[in-house]
Design a protein that fits this description.
This protein is an alpha/beta fold and 588 residues long. The chain contains 19 helices and 25 strands. It has 3 domains: 212 residues, Alpha-D-Glucose-1,6-Bisphosphate, Chain A, domain 3, CATH 3.40.120; 243 residues, Alpha-D-Glucose-1,6-Bisphosphate, subunit A, domain 3 (Alpha-D-Glucose-1,6-Bisphosphate, Chain A, domain 3, 3-Layer(aba) Sandwich), CATH 3.40.120; 119 residues, TATA-Binding Protein (2-Layer Sandwich), CATH 3.30.310.
Length: 588
């Protein structure tokens, strides 16, 4: 059996940042790339402090940070520390959990393979079985593989849509969902026991290779079969799949094979892929940021779309859990917001189910508290319940698991405004692969009726009212940024505004205290878990939500309104945003 040795060195948590730096700098065997980094910053005390003033945080999203040398960076040593902590947690669950094992997948980012192998070596050295993907794989496939193998946990090495200097490690539970707060705390306790990541050494040649199995193509095929069963009108695609033109880009990520393969299997005959963005590229050199939420990521895709006269343009982020969509609008292409694509998918799914008589009487959709309220109105029209969760797809996955356990609801659709959607619960995280296929089917269905998705969206607005949402992301990096975010949230809780853009604030929902406080001072408990989120609900139903991002150095401010016309809704949202930013003292 492999041996992991934790040597008697200074406990990292007890040393200051300068001592940590010196400890890393003089560590025998430090990777050459990291050693060069440390030498290059020897005369930069602020940079040293930023890298070593704390350990990279491990929360419900796992770990995510800038790659490089340091305790506050993502590197092979901090990955090993997280893997050893996960191993400690699994061992506490008993021999069966160790035998069930851990599935490990990774995306196209720099060092992904190195980090995945490092995590696998640590786990197998602790007599825990590992199912390791031999090639890059999207996050939803990792979620599916955990369920396919009936594994105890999963690890996904990815930083999703973040810039190329970032990487991350997400941990999944046996249901294929990201771990909960309770599990994160238990793993964090194990990390504290590990202490210094440099003290973890794997004895050469003693790793238990027989405990590591490489994931075979049968898992991908089973996943594809599940997606194929989600199609509402496969015969329509088979008969008319040549009537729609699609452009797709994986943005140098993991989506190329599964998305194009699935679209072609479904019967779409004109799938045009952006050639410059097909190959894995850790630098994401053709885009400023590989984020399908941003219009800039679609530049090359739009150029191809104009050449081939595409009806729809789709882009997935590097780990293929998020998807963005452009719709042809005359001679131009219009980008759907995450909320707009969500309500279009919801409307399409419920309408098709109702037509087929397949709408369950106990059906439910699940959305986050910062996603559009229009979804609830659409669901209500079809007699479908809406449940809300905190931001993060793990909460949507928790709801799905609850439905399975108690049988009270039948899951129909889940989404969050940040371009994440789930239509089939065989995956327990947002899934851009299954979404891409249903978007294509939806686009074809409406095109055959001589409608674009924008026209369908307008019909939805005319029926339910014009809902408009906006998002402000304040980037606040480093130690100062973290303090600024804390101060901003504290100030908002201590003295919230009485009105925003002349609209009285009727309710403050503080998810940290768990209280819903009305302007008359009365209050009631919120049903959702504790989280650092504040939501202001205004007199006309408009709302503003504020939360620090759990994965990026950003403060996110969500603004939502409803009005009788599109222009009125947009003007109201703009006024609310300007007024609230002024209240916060933010210059834009």
């Amino acid at each position: 059996m492999a041996v992991i040795e934790v040597t008697k060195v200074e406990t990292q948590a007890r040393t200051n940042y300068r001592e940590r730096y010196e400890q890393w700098l003089h560590y025998q065997g430090l990777e050459e790339e990291l050693l060069q980094e440390l030498n290059s910053i020897s005369g930069q005390p602020q940079e040293i402090e930023e890298r070593f003033y704390k350990d990279l945080e491990f929360g419900t999203g796992g770990m995510r940070g800038i790659m490089g040398a340091g305790t506050n960076r993502l590197n092979v040593y901090t990955v090993r520390k997280a893997a050893l902590a996960l191993a400690g947690y699994i061992k506490q669950q008993g021999q069966e959990a160790m035998q069930m094992g851990v599935v490990i997948a990774y995306d196209t980012r720099q060092h992904s393979t190195l980090f995945a192998e490092a995590a696998a070596d640590v786990l197998t050295s602790q007599s825990i079985n590992v199912f390791l993907f031999a090639v890059i794989a999207p996050t939803p496939l990792l979620s599916y593989a955990v369920r396919y193998y009936q594994a105890y946990a999963g690890i996904m090495l990815t930083a999703s849509h973040n810039p190329p200097q970032y990487h991350g490690l997400k941990v999944y539970n046996r249901l294929g969902a990201q771990m909960t707060e309770e599990t994160a705390q238990l793993i964090l306790q194990e990390m504290e026991k590990v202490g210094n990541p440099l003290a973890i050494s794997l004895s050469p040649g003693q790793r238990e290779a027989n405990r590591k199995v490489y994931v075979g193509k049968e898992v991908r095929e089973a996943y594809m079969d599940e997606i194929r069963h989600l199609l509402h009108q496969p015969d329509l695609i088979e008969a008319h799949g040549d009537q729609i033109s699609l452009v797709y880009t994986p943005l140098h990520g993991t989506g190329l094979q599964p998305v194009t393969n699935m679209l072609q299997r479904a019967g779409f005959q004109h799938v045009h892929v952006v050639a410059q963005q097909t190959l894995p590229d850790p630098s994401f050199s053709t885009v400023t940021s590989p984020n399908p939420e941003e219009m800039a990521a679609f530049q090359l895709a739009m150029e191809l779309a104009l050449q081939v006269n595409a009806d729809l343009v789709m882009a997935t982020d590097p780990d293929a859990d998020r998807i963005g969509v452009l719709v042809k609008d005359g001679d131009e292409y219009h980008k759907l917001t995450g909320n707009q694509l969500g309500v279009l998918l919801l409307h399409y799914v419920l309408e098709r189910r109702q037509e087929k008589g397949a709408l369950p009487t106990n059906g439910a959709i699940v959305k986050t508290i910062v996603s559009t309220d229009l979804a609830s109105k659409i669901a209500e029209t079809y007699g479908v319940a809406t449940e809300q969760t905190l931001t993060g797809f793990k909460y949507i996955a928790e709801k799905i698991a609850g439905y399975e356990t108690d049988g009270t609801r039948s899951f129909l659709f889940g989404f969050e405004e940040s371009y994440g959607y789930l239509l089939g619960d065989f995956v327990r995280d947002k899934d851009a692969v299954q979404t891409a296929v249903i978007v294509a089917e939806m686009g074809l269905y409406y095109k055959l009726q001589h409608k674009s998705l924008l026209q369908v969206l307008e019909e939805i607005y005319q029926q339910h009212g014009y809902y408009h949402e906006d998002l402000v992301s304040l980037t606040l990096k480093g130690i100062e940024g973290l303090q600024e975010m804390k101060q901003m949230m504290s100030a908002l809780r201590a003295q919230p505004p009485q009105a925003v853009a002349n609209l009285p604030v009727e309710v403050l929902e503080d998810y940290q205290t768990g209280l819903r406080v009305r302007k008359d001072g009365s209050s009631e408990r919120l049903s959702l878990p504790q989280s650092d989120v504040c939501k202001l609900i205004l007199a006309d139903g408009s709302w503003i939500a504020v939360r620090p991002s759990g994965t990026e150095p950003k403060m996110k401010i969500y603004v939502a309104s409803k009005a009788a016309t599109r222009d009125e809704a947009e003007m109201k949202t703009a006024a609310l945003k300007a007024s609230f930013l002024q209240f916060l003292g933010v210059q834009r």
